[in-house]
Every structure is written in structure tokens, then in C-alpha cells.
Design a protein that fits this description.
By secondary structure, the chain is an all-alpha fold. The protein has a domain at about 1-125. Helices cover about 50% and strands about 0% of the residues. The protein has 7 helices and no strands. Helix 3 packs across helix 5 (about 95-120) and helix 4 (about 85-90) runs antiparallel to helix 5. The longest helix is centred in the N-terminal third of the chain and has 25 residues, at about 1-25. The chain is globular, with a radius of gyration of 18 Å.
């Protein structure tokens, strides 16, 4: 049973990366038919408030509520993301697979919300001092500069596999500074500076 649980976790984490990528790219950055809720909340609201300049960090306390997803998204996303594992659990005749998968996806989702919160509202928390957070923060900053790149927040595996991974900016821009934000400018010093985003 322990091996089954471990195997489920090892399958669920990469799956969650691809689930996050798909949701982010196809629901949060474009309307899907008549479903516009995620697109309006994310692309039209979150990205309008949080850009790749000094506004990457919270400026106006009244807009703090636009950092996380609405609370009801979590249970719904955990529920629907586990459907393939429900099928696997039915096939193998055990509830350990869907239960383990949902717990793992729940932890992935919680990690997403927490580190995304820390990225836009830095407070020198312990996680913000880690090298993993530092790299992911640069990864996400580039997403705010190039909205159709770097869709993953937690594990950029899907970005890597699906060709949307961007490690550095294509052109110079005025990015936020600080000990928890890497320099994501092009390595070539002869690259022209881009105009500021409006």
C-alpha cells in the first residue's frame, strides 16, 4: 500500500504541473466559449494591477484581494483535477489512489496560493529566502512581462515540456528590485531598453 501511495504522489505532482499550465493558459488568459470568469479575474484584473515593474508588488491595499484565486476555486479544482485518479482507483479497486491524488493536488494548490501571495506581497518570510522561491519568483515575474510564457507558478515542468519556458527577458525593461527577485534582464548588454509598460 505504501508503494501505491508513493507511486500516486510521484504521478500526481507532474500531472498537477500540467493541470496548472492548462488551466492558466486556456481559462485564465482567454475566454473559453461563454465562460469568462477566470479570464476576467486573472488576465483582465490581476495582470492589470500587477505588472512586471514596481507594481509587481502590492501597491494599493484595496487590491490585495486580487492576488489569490477566490476561495471556492480550490475545492472545485481539487475535485475536478482528481477525475483521472478516480478512474485509476476504480480500475485498481482502491480508494488510496484518488484520495492520495486529491491530497497531493490540494497541497500543490495550497503551495500555489501561498508562494503566489508571497511573490506579490513580500514580507521576508522564511520561504522567500530560499533559492527555489528566488528562481520561481523570477519565473513568475517574466510571466507578468510576457503573459503567454511561464504559466506555471509552482513547478515549471509543463512550461519546459510545452515550450513556454522563458528564463530571461527578450529585451530590457524596468523590473522590480530586491534581494528576493533575480535579474531577468537579457545577458547581452547591447540589447535595447524596452519602453515602459502602460
Amino acid at each position: 500500500m505504501l508503494l501505491l501511495i508513493l507511486a500516486t504522489v510521484l504521478c500526481t505532482v507532474p500531472y498537477a504541473s500540467f493541470f496548472e499550465w492548462t488551466l492558466h493558459r486556456f481559462l485564465m488568459h482567454r475566454p473559453l466559449g461563454g465562460f469568462t470568469y477566470a479570464y476576467i479575474a486573472h488576465a483582465l484584473t490581476h495582470h492589470r494591477i500587477f505588472k512586471a515593474d514596481h507594481t509587481y508588488h502590492l501597491i494599493d491595499e484595496e487590491t490585495k484581494h486580487t492576488i489569490p484565486m477566490a476561495w471556492w476555486n480550490g475545492p472545485f479544482l481539487i475535485l475536478i483535477s482528481g477525475i483521472p485518479f478516480d478512474v485509476a482507483g476504480w480500475y485498481f479497486g482502491t480508494w488510496a489512489i484518488p484520495l492520495t491524488a486529491r491530497i497531493t493536488v490540494g497541497m500543490y494548490y495550497g503551495t500555489y496560493e501561498y508562494i503566489h501571495w508571497c511573490m506579490h506581497l513580500p514580507r521576508k518570510r522564511n520561504i522567500e529566502r530560499t533559492g527555489v522561491f528566488f528562481r520561481l519568483n523570477g519565473h513568475h515575474l517574466l510571466h507578468h512581462r510576457y503573459m503567454h510564457r511561464n504559466f506555471n507558478v509552482v513547478l515549471p515542468l509543463a512550461d519546459f515540456c510545452l515550450g513556454t519556458l522563458l528564463l530571461r527577458s527578450k529585451m530590457r525593461f524596468v523590473q522590480p528590485q530586491g534581494p528576493m527577485i533575480p535579474d531577468v534582464q537579457p545577458k547581452d548588454s547591447s540589447v535595447q531598453k524596452a519602453p515602459a509598460l502602460q
